[in-house]
């Protein structure tokens, strides 16, 4: 649980006033995670961006760690697994949890695309299992996709949805499992067409990104594609009446799934590295800038009336 995603979950749960126990098989990982969380919370507090009603020290006092799984889950109401995206590794963790948890705790995975039917297959406590997929970085981007196993009890979905709302996230219910869930299916569709447009010489990599950052992304930061359709005409029926023929014509011209390799990847990589060299220092600096932008955007979104 102690990578970026795990640390972010710990901070989010603590921001809601919940006691958090970090688990890892290595004490050094726990120690480093606690130190990183402390530093990040103190910076957030100084900048006025710390989530929750408690101060940094109060939130930090809620987070502890241990190397014993049984101790880590004792008395827990919610378990959030955050190991690497490896099916066999995750299944091993869930099998271990299955032997030691009670019939009340929710067992949740942070998986970004592994199907619940594969993750939780054969578990005794499958009714308590769910995927809660956050968006990186979770502390600044509130969306969480909730995906049930076919045998997940509806109360598990309801409890997890309520918990995510309690800690300030924006949970969405994926009503049945599908490969990639919703967010990555949309993301991959955009990536695929972006790649084709660059590879076909229609637009440069830098201008392609500008189409999103200064175009579609501006409105998608506040409203989704369906509401955009509704507002860009006299309602949804009007939009489809006006534009469906053109949309179908354009969609038929979309090419095959890209390979994301060869000359195309070299072309895109060169453009990206001209903007942001791919050494650790430059990438870390750009991620820091991105997170600061997300922080300011999330603050603006909170200040904007929802209606």
Automatic annotation (TrEMBL):
Primary localization: cytoplasm
Keyword terms: Cytoplasm, NAD, Oxidoreductase, Phosphoprotein
GO molecular function: L-gulonate 3-dehydrogenase activity; NAD+ binding
GO annotation, biological process: fatty acid metabolic process
Subcellular location: Cytoplasm
InterPro entries in the cross-refs: 3-OHacyl-CoA_DH, 3-OHacyl-CoA_DH_CS, 3-OHacyl-CoA_DH_NAD-bd, 3HC_DH_C, 6-PGluconate_DH-like_C_sf, 6PGD_dom2, NAD(P)-bd_dom_sf
Quaternary data: Homodimer.
UniProt protein name: L-gulonate 3-dehydrogenase
Origin species: Orycteropus afer afer
Name of the gene encoding the protein in the UniProt record: CRYL1
């Amino acid at each position: 649980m102690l990578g970026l995603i795990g640390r972010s979950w710990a901070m989010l749960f603590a921001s809601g006033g919940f006691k958090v126990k970090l688990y890892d098989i290595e004490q050094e990982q726990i120690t480093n995670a606690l130190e990183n969380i402390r530093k990040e919370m103190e910076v957030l507090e100084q900048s006025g961006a710390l989530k929750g009603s408690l101060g940094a020290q109060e939130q930090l006092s809620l987070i502890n760690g241990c190397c014993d799984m049984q101790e880590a889950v004792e008395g827990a109401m919610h378990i959030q697994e955050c190991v690497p995206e490896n099916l066999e590794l995750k299944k091993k963790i869930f099998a271990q949890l299955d032997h030691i948890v009670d019939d009340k705790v929710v067992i949740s995975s942070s998986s970004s695309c592994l199907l619940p039917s594969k993750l939780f297959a054969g578990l005794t406590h499958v009714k308590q299992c769910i995927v809660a997929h956050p968006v990186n970085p979770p502390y600044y981007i509130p969306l969480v996709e909730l995906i049930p196993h076919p045998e997940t009890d509806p109360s598990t979905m309801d409890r997890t949805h309520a918990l995510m709302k309690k800690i300030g996230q924006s949970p969405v219910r994926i009503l049945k499992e599908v490969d990639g869930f919703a967010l990555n299916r949309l993301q991959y569709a955009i990536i695929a067409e972006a790649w084709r447009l660059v590879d076909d010489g229609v637009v440069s990599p830098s201008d392609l990104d500008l189409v999103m950052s200064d175009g579609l992304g501006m409105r998608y930061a506040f409203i989704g594609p369906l509401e955009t359709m509704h507002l860009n005409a006299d309602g949804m029926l009007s939009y489809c009446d006006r534009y469906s023929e053109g949309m179908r014509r354009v969609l038929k011209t979309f090419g095959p799934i890209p390979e994301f390799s060869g000359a195309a990847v070299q072309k895109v990589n060169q453009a990206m590295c001209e903007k942001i060299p791919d050494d650790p220092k430059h990438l870390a600096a750009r991620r820091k800038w991105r997170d600061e932008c997300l922080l300011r955007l999330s603050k603006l979104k909170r200040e904007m009336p929802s209606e």
